[in-house]
Design brief:
With about 160 residues, this protein is mostly beta strands. About 15% of the residues lie in helices and about 35% in strands. It has a single domain, classed as M1 Pyruvate Kinase, Domain 3. A seven-stranded mixed β-barrel has the order 1-6-5-9-8-7-11. The radius of gyration is 15 Å and the shape is globular.
Length: about 160
């Protein structure tokens, strides 16, 4: 688990100011225990923010036979260069913040309208992750994404 080829990187950040409102693309954001400042979803807990891997965007586009952009998928942060699936239930350092990946984001039926016919199924298994914010801090485009492992954890 501790072996990753490299740290990941924050490629994109988006905030959803209200339910169904257009996503606002930003260069940085402040994370708190309740969520991302400026995002409508601020109840904290295991779903305080959402992430998706940049590497999955072309997969979704190919499966849906459509153009796909991060704002269409309504996730908060696009990460590249590290496998988020391998880090489920682990903590990550992103900028000055620390998060814990909680579970996969299931696609919603709106993807049929947003991406087009087949959008829902194209996102299955590629919809990203929801996470809790363990320690607040600033997250910016270009920040490194590094896994954090407990000392007593098995290294196998």
């Amino acid at each position: 688990m501790r072996r990753h080829a490299q740290p990941g990187r924050v490629d994109w950040i988006g905030l959803r100011p209200a339910r169904l409102a257009p996503v606002e693309i930003v260069e940085s954001v402040e994370a708190t225990s309740d969520g991302l400042i400026g995002d409508h979803f601020t109840s904290g807990g295991k779903r305080a923010l959402t992430l998706i891997q940049a590497e999955h965007l072309p997969v979704i586009a190919a499966l849906a036979e459509a153009r796909v952009t991060p704002e269409m998928l309504r996730r908060n942060i696009v990460i590249s260069g590290i496998n988020l699936t391998a880090l489920r239930h682990h903590e990550l350092e992103i900028g000055n913040a620390r998060i814990k990946l909680s579970g996969p984001c299931a696609p919603c039926s709106r993807m049929e309208k947003t991406i087009g016919s087949g959008g829902y199924n194209a996102m299955r298994g590629h919809g990203g992750w929801y996470a809790e914010i363990v320690k607040g801090g600033r997250i910016a485009v270009g920040d490194a994404v590094r896994p954090i492992f407990a000392e007593a954890e098995d290294t196998a």
